Amino acid sequence: MSRPLFGTDGVRGRANSAPMTAEIAMRIGMAAGLVFNRGDHRHRVVVGKDTRLSGYMIEQALTAGFLSVGMDVLLLGPIPTPAVGFLTKAMRADVGVMVSASHNLYEDNGIKLFGPDGFKLSDSVELEIERRVTAPHLNSLAAPADIGRARRLEDAEGRYIEAVKSSAARGLDLTGLKIVVDCAHGAAYKVAPTVLWELGAEVVALGVAPDGTNINRECGSTDTTALRARVVEEGADIGIALDGDADRVVLVSEKGVPIDGDQLMATIAEQWKGAGRLTGGGIVATVMSNLGLERFVGARGLLLVRTQVGDRYVLERMRADGFNLGGEQSGHIIMTDHATTGDGLMAALQALAALRKSGRPASEAFRAFEPVPQLLRNVRVGDAGATLRAAPVVAAIAAAEARLGRAGRILVRPSGTEPLIRVMAEGDDGELVRSVVAQIVDAIPSQAA
User: Fold this and answer.
1) What does the alpha-carbon distance between residue 344 and residue 378 come to, in Å, rounded to a whole number?
2) What is the pLDDT of residues 313-332, one digit of tens each?
3) What gap in Å lies between CA 196 and CA 242, rounded to an integer?
4) Is residue 241 within 8 Å of residue 251, measured between CB atoms?
5) CATH superfamily, with its number, for domain 11-154
6) What are the DSSP E strand ranges found in 94-196?
7) Which residues contact 67 (CB under 8 A, 6 or more apart)?
8) Phi, psi dihedral angles at 251 (to 5 degrees)
9) 275 contact partners, CB below 8 Å, separation of at least 6
10) Which CATH number fits domain 261-365: 3.30.870.10, 3.40.120.10, 3.40.640.10, 3.40.630.30?
11) Which CATH superfamily hosts domain 374-443?
12) Alpha helices in 46-80 (DSSP H)
């Protein structure tokens, strides 16, 4: 079934353009409120956001929609996405909402919805909400006496900080560690430095001065240039880069070298297996994870189960088959023993516990495997689906796959969050990998950004 509104991670688009307008946000609030209006109790929703300018508009429009159908609204203010999942369940809310476009720049925004269990919504529930958004006559407004009330939840940050700290290894003490943390001028700009400091670390904080337009700009997990330089300059033990809504993390070693989600998953998996904590017999990753990770876990008698790209699909497979660790190469690390979605800060604490236990520098502790040469290139297009169906593109992909053969793999897919086609190849022959990626990219008619 067509899903014109919801993508792989909620609703996302350019701020003040469909679907990220105040009108549509209000209708989403109304629709979600009615879908989750179950039972005779007083219904409530928690609403968090990151720091982008349009968050004010979207937050207030959603609030109006929820209030109009009789839902009480608890406003959390700027707070990480995983905190919304946590607080939705902890406060027995009927639905949770995060206003964020994650790693995108401030011009974009998005709406992520959580059910009462704190997990992101299933496709079927999203489709029901979408049906009501596109057919407003299905939505009934509350009577004047039943309109909802809105208020600020003043201790939202404190509740989440304690949850993050309690997720770490018992007695985790970061005393003596110097950590540079880049909060991307985003949702974790207060909570991340606080958690690390309270656990004993010496903290150097970057990206903690949001102004509404600088979120993810030349900072955070998508651009670690400044963090890498600062780690080396400070002589820090490790760097931590979060994205705008803090549901993903990238580490940086003491030498200023990035450590991606694949290496982090490998490290945590090995630690948890040794401690008897790993369930499901392995981990869940996406088709983008490096072949080196697959070989690493296989050599230890573990499974690597792959899903399509998107942390929601990783989580669905984890819950279905009993895995408690999974994630994406980009840094979404999901640990269902502790959180209902990817949590960059919790994953960072697991990494720091492993670093402490290893007694080695980060450059060694997080080099679990040697990555297979992998190359990803993005091509901006108009209609990704039509482009991928075009005969020249189909022929180029087939020819590239024939050249690579069994020496690696090729993945060409549309982005679920941006008007891009992502072309990825990996294999033991790095030069061949570069050649087949170029062959495919050259066949795709690009559109200027």
Assistant:
1) 24
2) 999 999 999 999 999 999 99
3) 13
4) yes
5) Alpha-D-Glucose-1,6-Bisphosphate, subunit A, domain 3 (3.40.120.10)
6) 95-99, 108-114, 150-152, 178-182
7) 73, 147, 148, 149, 150
8) -95, 160
9) none
10) 3.40.120.10
11) Alpha-D-phosphohexomutase, C-terminal domain (3.30.310.50)
12) 55-68
DSSP output for 79-107: --HHHHHHHHHHTT-SEEEEE--TTS-TT
Model confidence band, residue 1 (pLDDT cutoffs 50, 70, 90): very low
If DSSP codes are grouped into helix, strand and coil, which group holds residue 365?
helix
Is the CB of residue 47 less than 8 Å from the CB of residue 148? no
Whether the ω angle into residue 210 lies within 30 degrees of 0, i.e. cis, is no
Half-sphere exposure of 97 (CA within 13 A, CB side): 34
Q: Write down the residue that tokens 């993050």 correspond to.
A: 164
pLDDT tens digits for 33-65?
999 988 888 999 999 999 999 999 999 999 999
Count of other CB atoms within 10 angstroms of residue 246: 31
For residue 45, the one-letter residue type is V
User: Catalytic: 102?
Assistant: yes
Domains 261-365 and 374-443 share a fold: no
**pLDDT, greater one: 66 or 383:** 66
Three-state DSSP class for residue 278: coil
* Residue in the structure block whose two tokens are 């974009």: 108
Domain boundaries, the chain: 11-154, 159-255, 261-365, 374-443
Contacts of 42 (CB under 8 A, 6+ apart): 72
Which pair of tokens denotes residue 235? 């002589």
How far apart are alpha carbons 126 and 439 in whole angstroms?
Answer: 38
Give the Å distances, CA to CA, from 295 to 303, 354, 370, 409. 10, 21, 10, 14
Catalytic residue from among 54, 68, 102, 289: 102
CATH code, 159-255:
3.40.120.10
What is the spatial distance between Cα 186 and Cα 51, in angstroms, rounded to a whole number?
A: 5
